[in-house]
# Entry
Amino acid sequence: MLLRLAAAFALVFLGLAAPAMADEPIKLILKNHKFTPSTVRVKANQPSQILFINQDDTAEEFDSASLKVEKVVAGHSQGKIRLRALAKGKYTFMGEFHAATAQGVVIAE
Ligand SMILES: [Cu+2]
# Structure
């Protein structure tokens, strides 16, 4: 009986944990001045978060006029980027310090 209760509680906790997992930041890696993934998909009409991981030796600025975000992250460092609730659509971003190669898009859907 106790074991069964424990199992039931464990399931409840897993159930509660699931929505929190969905809010985990999306990892965006910069390496050799390119973003991976270069297309970031988020849910429309709710805030989301990107964990910007800069694996290059030099600083980079995540910059997007349409997202209204600018964030500088030092080389071999990382930073969290909070996105406001976005209407469905495409929002381009770039690494402003290496804009020739560091390009990407957020798709809210
Ligand atoms: Cu800028």
Summary: The chain has a mean pLDDT of 88.
